[in-house]
């Protein structure tokens, strides 16, 4: 219902204004949480998640990608509108750094 396939197609064609107009943001905001929960679940089933706070990179990424979706129609990087496909993807990079940093800090505080 978010028109995600059409959004991806238009993004690859460089038609960002078309992407913004075709996007159903109410449905699109559901995707990041589902996607990162699925990644966490697969990570945990594969044997990860043994250490405390190992979920933090996934949670922080889901939160900020969802926020990125909300701002994607207006956010510009160096004057370029990236839209609701590319901008939320870029939000993952700093949030993984923050999530892993929080995990390390909290595990050190808990041990000490």
Task: Please tell me about this protein's structure.
- With 112 residues, the protein is mainly α.
- The chain has 6 helices and 2 strands.
- The chain has helices at 4-13, 16-22, 25-28, 30-45, 56-71, 83-111, and strands at 76-77, 80-81.
- It has a two-stranded antiparallel ribbon.
- A hairpin with a 2-residue loop joins β1 (76-77) and β2 (80-81).
- The longest helix has 29 residues, at 83-111.
| Overall number of strands | 2
Helix content: over 70%
- The strands making up the biggest β-sheet line up spatially as 1-2
Report the major sheet: 2 strands, antiparallel
User: Globular, elongated, flat, extended or rod-shaped: what is the shape?
Assistant: elongated
Element order: H for helix, E for strand: HHHHHEEH
Mean of all residue-level pLDDT scores: 91
What radius of gyration results from the CA coordinates?
A: 16 Å
User: Roughly how many Å apart are the termini?
Assistant: 48 Å
**How many domains make up the coordinates?**
1
Fraction in beta strands? under 5%
Total of DSSP H or I helical runs spanning 4+ residues: 6
- Structural class call reads mainly alpha
Poorly predicted ranges: none
């Amino acid at each position: 219902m978010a028109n995600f396939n059409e959004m991806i197609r238009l993004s690859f064609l460089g038609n960002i204004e078309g992407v913004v107009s075709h996007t159903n943001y109410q449905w699109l905001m559901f995707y990041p949480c589902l996607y990162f929960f699925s990644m966490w679940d697969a990570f945990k089933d594969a044997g990860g998640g043994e250490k405390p706070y190992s979920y933090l990179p996934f949670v922080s990424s889901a939160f900020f990608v969802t926020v990125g979706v909300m701002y994607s129609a207006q956010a510009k990087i160096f004057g370029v509108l990236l839209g609701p496909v590319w901008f939320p993807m870029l939000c993952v990079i700093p949030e993984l750094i923050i999530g892993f940093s929080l995990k390390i800090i909290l595990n050190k505080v808990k041990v000490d």
